[in-house]
## 1
Amino acid sequence: MKIVPKKGFIVGMLALFALCAVAAQSATLVFGLSGNPDTLDPQKTAGTLTFQVDKSFYDTLVEPDQTGKIVPALAQSWSISPDGLVWTFNLRKDVNFQNGQVFTSKDVKATLDRIMDEKMASPKRSEYAAIKSIRTPDAYTVVLTLSQPYAPLLATLASGWSAILPSELIASGHNFAAEPVGTGPFKFDKWIRDSKITMVRNDKYWIKGTPKLAKVEFQIIPERAVQVQGLSLGSIDALEFVDPDDLPMLQANPKVTIKKELSSLIMVMAMNCAREPLNDLRVRQAVNYAIDKQTVLDIAYGGGRVGSTFLDTGNPYYSDFSSLYPYNPDKARQLLKDTGVGNREFTIAVPQNYPLHVKAAELMQQMLAKVGMNVKIQLMDWSTWLSSVYTGGNFDFTVIGHTGKLDPDGTLAGYGAGKYVHWYNATAAAKIKEAATVSDFGARKKLYTDALEIMAKDVPFVYIGTSYRYVGTRSNVFDFRMTPSLDSFDFRWTELR
Amino acid sequence: MALRRSRNVLFSLSALYLFLLVTVAIAAPLVAPYSPTDQFLDRRFHAPDARNPLGTDDFGRDILSRLMYGARPALTVGIVAVSIALALGGVVGLLAGMGTRLIDQALMLIMDSILSFPTILLAITVVSFMGYGLVQVMVALGIISSPVFARLVRAETLAIKSEGYIEASRALGTGPVKLVFRHVIPNIMSKVIVQSSLTFAQAVVVEASLSFLGVGIQPPAASWGLMLKDARNYLMQAPWMAIFPGVALALTVLSFNLVGDSLSERFNPRLNEAR
């Protein structure tokens, strides 16, 4: 009698194993997504979640590779006239939309017209403002004429919001918000709000031999602890971001692989240059000398590459100025003595929804205390931080991470002319402005290097650096790629073995 | 008898613990082995040993020292919050109890409406308006805890008001102010003391909760709630970070409640008679 339930148990387990085996063969990748996208229409939002999911449904004319360099995609080549005003794209001829429609220049024009239409109210519309006209001389050529040279346009065309939609469905008023149709590697299957989004392989994808997965399932899991549990138990195959604090536990699990790569974040402690005594360069220098950046990066952010100016350290436009302000507490003490800062109280304002920044603030508070500065920490919620610190300018110090943009203009535009640090430098501002009109990489880099050098010397920030990003997958997941500069994931080459 | 003896032992132990706690809090700079904010980055997540008897936290700070300094905000918040609650609630309760029906109803309506909010929620609301910090937490808690005292004092005042000796005293021409100070207050003191110890325990918990949520005491200052907040992420890696502040908090609250219970028994004449 006792044996019967045991038998049943064994049979049940066998059945379960069989089920698992079948699941592995059909190659479904389960991905933990940190929230529910507000819409799937790439032209109606600025939300990262939307672009992260849409990356698998759509393609763009050009796209960034993993190093951030812009490479051909739906356009197999492009050229820019010497005056920077006429941009010509030659399109691929072997591309089909998932609904069967053939991809041509008509779709590019219809897509760009749609996002530039005021009625669409896309938050990204202003990025296309330089486009004066869109011509389609033949089915596989698109010519953009600009009203003024605007180099960042290439990065815009490589970003998620420039996803190419099929012209026939645009004309018929298809609901792209709920049901995406593109040329991408995966076809939309279904979206159960706040639960999951599923997609199946597009067998006619234009990169032959991809995608390798039959199905991708995005599980929407906002809670970090649940994501980590899912990865360690195997209900999730991949996570885009693992918190440094969770690393020891996951690294101890032989079934989980952690990949470390440089993120595109620029971690800084910003200083309010409009406030006494931080308006004195020597005080800002003292603060820079007092901070051991490598320690802050290692302990608060899980490691990374130390920065020296206002760009992500992996960016092709980045230049190193780290010899300017090395860690030197004695020099900091001397400068503080010279400037007579004394026992004056400073406050580091930190948004408390970012525990890593809070940790960095606690470390820096101690480092500053060691050189004799009287510094307090003030935690605040995100909306207070935005209104009081970022737009209100009501702070001494604040710790924050800037997301590096595909084009350096996205990061640097406006600096030298105020921004939230109230830092004014006419030369830097002019160079940054000019760089946006130059398309040649060498000439652009020269301008940015000049501006970045001024920012490195004049230190409106403590440039902590660029942290690593830890991507967690199950050990049987191969070639899961992140595009750091877009903050999105690429499943085209991913395999389950 | 055995039950009463074990209760007495509990009372003595609780009182002893609270006495030690107060002593440590006052003498923290003398008895703590380290400063509560000194970071030893080469000794992060160190398990308890001779150098750090209770281990270190994620910044290499000494947990024992932080625990000792953490007793200060806990007790300060308790004392100040109870004083504010007592002053505010006591005055309102006396006015309501001694005053006319209209005054009574108006005052108690305000108090009851405060009471209708959950404590932590109301505390967060108040702190969000006034800004994060120790002083704000104390004021918020004082206001929130006042209705309990108001109700208690009012009920006791009403009961005493109808006693024969009060009517006699009144008939002899004693004014209401003198009546309150000479007869009412001395008679309700015992109950107020018991309630104070219970409110104190609650204040300690709420201070820890608010600091845990990041809206109370600001880092890097030591507070048990902040220590638990830090510890939360390292439960597997460094369990001592959570265990010691958790135990300190639990013991403190338990002791205040036990002392409160014992006092209420001792002060209650009817229970004494039953013995």
Note: Chain B has a mean pLDDT of 89.
## 2
Amino acid sequence: MSVTAPTTLRERPPRGPRRTRSGRSLVGYLTMPVFLVLVGVVLYLYVHAQDLDSIEVRSLNASRLTKAVWESVQLTVVSTVLVIAIAVPLGVLLTRPFTRRIRPYILAVFNIGQAIPTIGIFVLLAVAFLFLGFKAAIVGLVLYTVVPVLLNTMVGLEQVDDSILEAGRGMGISKFGVLRTIELPLSIPIILAGVRTALIINVGTATLATYINAGGTGDIIVAGLSTNRTLVQIVGAVLTAMLALFIDYLAGVAEDLLRPKGL
Amino acid sequence: MTTAETGQQRRIMIELDALSKEFPGQEKPAVDGLSLEVPEGEIVILVGPSGCGKTTTMKMINRIIEPTSGRIILDGEDVTKANPDHLRRRIGYVIQQIGLFPHMTIAENIATVPKLLGWDKARISARIDELLETVNMPSSQYRDRYPKELSGGQRQRIGVARAMSGDPDVMLMDEPFGAVDPITRDRLQNEFLRLQSEFRKTIVFVTHDIDEAIKMGDRIAILQEGSRIAQYDTPEQILTAPANDFVADFIGSGASLKRLNLSRVADLELTQWATARVGTDREEALETLRRSDHGALLVLDQNGRPRRWVSAADLSRSDGQPLDRIGMEPEAVVEPRATLSDALNELITASYSVVVVVDQEGVYQGIVDIDQINESIRTMRSNAVARAREGLASDRGAGEVGSVSE
């Protein structure tokens, strides 16, 4: 046996230094940022070449645009962080054996949350509760995106091989220890995929927050629509798309970095 | 239940006392009042048909499954109600699927229990190196790898190393070699027996394979449905004197062949074969071959490891090529710890009629041929018959009075 043991692995080629852990090359990582910068430059030059009237100037200036983008970022990040804080612990609880009986009911409640479009929730909050602004927008976004993260957390935890858990328990790791050192790390890729979905939904839906006075890039689009200025509409739409692509890119990078080695 | 003679001398390490397990919704208990004593330093095999409750029984020892009633006594201490996590850290646990943690390196996997036991870093690190050496996987090469980078046999070795990491007195093994191919399995079994001869752990080993049971066990418990013991005895006794029809059926036919699992190549007197070192020239090699009555020469390298089989015809056709370039590669090579059954298997699949025996470093020790194995079978069978007749003779002695009047 000693004769055969080492041979099989020696042939494995060492990993190239340029490759990252996920196997994505450096070029792969740079493509999206470079593309976004190019789009930004083209947009800037295009707007610059136009003769802007006073209405357009009021919408298309640096401070107004930065503020709108920053508000969108805040809406997205805060809502997603809250979603993670709610959905991951809930997913853990709902995969423990003692919650088996109540699991379907809780899932049904959250599914209702996802069935109602966010714009509906915004309107409901505004009309029925006179609840407007940033916090109201966050409530609407969170209600809508808890479900994908919750489901992915549950699927992630449940796909961990039983034999791995049995080995862990059999060696005397406590229940909480198994959750912390084995189950959660092994479900990170799937949980993160859910978080990424939530981010994308949130960054898109955040444009609707303008209707309840919560700002964001939706402000620009709506301003363009109400004043009938196509250029303003285009700038708002392109900024929204760029922000969505950039956040998705960052989420992808985070997935690569946070994925446990060895999987 | 028959208690073997050696049982009295050894300390009892694990005692199961009227252990039962009933699963909700099942009519019959999975384990029905099992009592069993496992002596220190022995491998006790629980073997039986599927569904007989052997795995449930084993998993109650470390309380992965909680018994419904009965007691578990470990090294004189009743652990039926002890903290299960602390109990499990004292018991090595190997399962068929191995269950290595894929996101941890080999070193981290092995360090699991020592960390739980609160060892310091230097001690843990030294322990990892030691264990990897023990299972023949050089630490420098393997400790930072991930499980997916290993072959099935290597993973199984790490599984065993991980189970031994906290230096437990007791180990539980649930079909540990069930998921590897037959050749790797034989090797792992032999290697495990070598480790066991060194460490003398108390081991409860579950399998459904009677051949594995005979090969690995110091003692075998053959279980029937409900984990009732049909026979608890040494492999030799079980093969020679099955307690009832169930045991006889379970062993199946070919008890003599199975007995080959009981003797090892090391028990035989090895025959020497005509050999030549790699550098030897052709004339000298031919001369050696001529002086022997063999059909071929075994060529050894500088370190004495077998390299080639070279026949007279190969030599005359050699055209001055060195000895290690002609002839054919030795296939049937076994270590002294291999059973005669292993040797016979090798012999049958190889293209010539002898098995080359090498030591752990692969150095040539001698050969075993089919006649020697045959002779062993004959001896074992006549011994078994003699033992069986002993009982007969004493019966006859008692009945003699009656037969005289005939």
Note: Chain B has a mean pLDDT of 87.
